[in-house]
Structure formats: C-alpha cells, structure tokens
Amino acid sequence: MSESFRQFLRALPDFPDVLPDFDPATAPEDPAELFRQWLTDALAAGVPQPNACSLATADAQGRPSSRMLILKDIDDDGWHFATSRQSRKGRELAENPSAALNFFWQQQGRQVRVAGEVVELSAEASAADWHDRPGADGTANPSWQLYALRPRELEFWQARHDRRHIRHRYGPR
User: Fold this and answer.
1) Which of 1-10, 21-30, 119-128 has the lowest mean pLDDT?
2) What pLDDT is stored for residue 139 in this prediction?
3) Chain centroid to CA 64: how far?
4) Are 127 and 144 in contact (CB under 8 A)?
5) Is the pLDDT of residue 78 over 80?
C-alpha cells in the first residue's frame, strides 16, 4: 500500500502550465513592496484568501507548531497578526518570541517566507483589531493581542517547470 500511495502522491499535479516570470534583479529594495505586488498578483489570479499564511512558533523547549491565520497589516512595526494570549501560539510566543510566516499561492507557483522576532503591539491597537473583526459585537477581549513579526529574513520563491526555482532573499545569507 505504501508504494502505491507514494506513486499516487508523485502523480499529483503541482503547478499550472503557465507560471509568472520573476527576475530578482527587478525586485524593489523594500521586501514589503514586493510582497504587496505578489499579493495583488495572487488576488488577480483568483487565489482565495491570499492573505492567509502559516504561522510557525516553538515553545521554550524548541518544539514547533504551525497553524493558518490571516495577515492583518504590514507597517514599520512589522507584519501583523493577532490571537489570544491564552492560545497555544500566544503561550509559545510568550516563551519564545521568534516565529515564521509562510504564504503559498499555488496558482502562481509562489511562496513567501518571513522569519524574525515577534513583539506585542499596544493594548489600544489590539482592542481596535478585536473590534474590527467580522462579527464583532462591541464587547472587549482583554486577552486579544495584536503582534508584529519583525523580519530578520524574507525569501520570495518562484516555481519553474524546469525545477530551477528562483529564490530571492532579503536579510542575512
């Protein structure tokens, strides 16, 4: 059974026949600008929820966990996301404030990785984020926290059918 499952997995399609081109030499100096361009391209290509990403955290012993969430904003503070401080990711970030985000847009054969330190944003910003959520009823949630991941490194990855995928990095090599 395992060999047939392996063959089944190997036979699954990977990327569409037509992929966008990417020349790192033309990339803007600001990685947030390139991310905004790629997000806009993903939206135009019909990617559902192109702002969805995987957040990877680790506890104090370095045991990782990962889950999907929504990017809230990018500004001078960093790449914003939110959760309850009492959730698993909230507890892990309190123990080990390093994390990584990963965006994947299969329709374009693109992904973006962002890794760095995470900081808590203000109580006012957290309360505003809570109240801006769909279905907000006006009640307060003091455990809700808006975080910012401050990138140490970013990698933009463009798939190619010849398997010579393009990687463009910002940050330490």
Assistant:
1) 1-10
2) 93
3) 16
4) yes
5) yes
pLDDT 10s digits, 102-144: 999 999 999 999 999 999 999 999 999 999 998 889 899 999 9
Token pair recorded at residue 73: 């904003």
Non-local (6+) Cβ contacts of 38 within 8 A are 105, 108, 110, 112, 156
For the chain, what are the domain ranges?
28-170
Q: How confident is the model at residue 3 (pLDDT cuts 50, 70, 90)?
A: confident
In CATH, which superfamily holds the domain spanning 28-170?
A: Electron Transport, Fmn-binding Protein; Chain A (2.30.110.10)
- Tokens 């500004």 -> residue: 75
